Amino acid sequence: GQFLQDGQCVHANQCRCLHDGTFYDNGDEIRNEGECKVCTCEDSGEMSCVNMACPKLNCREDELVSYRQDFCCPYCLSNWVEAMNPSINIKKGCVDFGTETA
Question: What is d(CA 37, CA 13) in angstroms, rounded to the nearest whole number?
Answer without folding.
Answer: 23
